[in-house]
Amino acid sequence: xxxxxxxxxxxxxxxxxxxxxxxxxxxxxxxxxxxxxxxxxxxxxxxxxxxxxxxxxxxxxxxxxxxxxxxxxxxxxxxxxxxxxxxxxxxxxxxxxxxxxxxxxxxxxxxxxxxxxxxxxxx
Length: 123
What we know:
The protein is mainly β. The chain starts with a strand and ends with a strand. Strand 5 and strand 6 (57-59) form a beta hairpin. It contains no helices and eleven strands. Strands 2, 4, 5, 6, 9, 10 and 11 form a seven-stranded mixed beta sheet that branches. Strands 1-3-8-7 form a four-stranded antiparallel beta sheet, with no helix packed on it.
């Protein structure tokens, strides 16, 4: 199994920056995509950014140009650099890792999730 631990959340003023980290441990072999999701109170969990094993990144339209996702394979860690933060960015941010392996000639995929880290953007 894979364990994911997020860190770096906190309180920041509008226009500020924050850097989230997600450390993966366990059966890290087989992890393909890693990503960040967020969920605000009363709202559905939404995709923020994902990065593939080939370091190709995709972002939600709401964060394009402000957020940057990256990963350090040597440290088994994914990052989310958040700049120009807005109050609408306030949410619990969750790290996600997609894991796959071959079983009986077929690929099995599974999603692992971190515990979440609170990001609050307020003056």
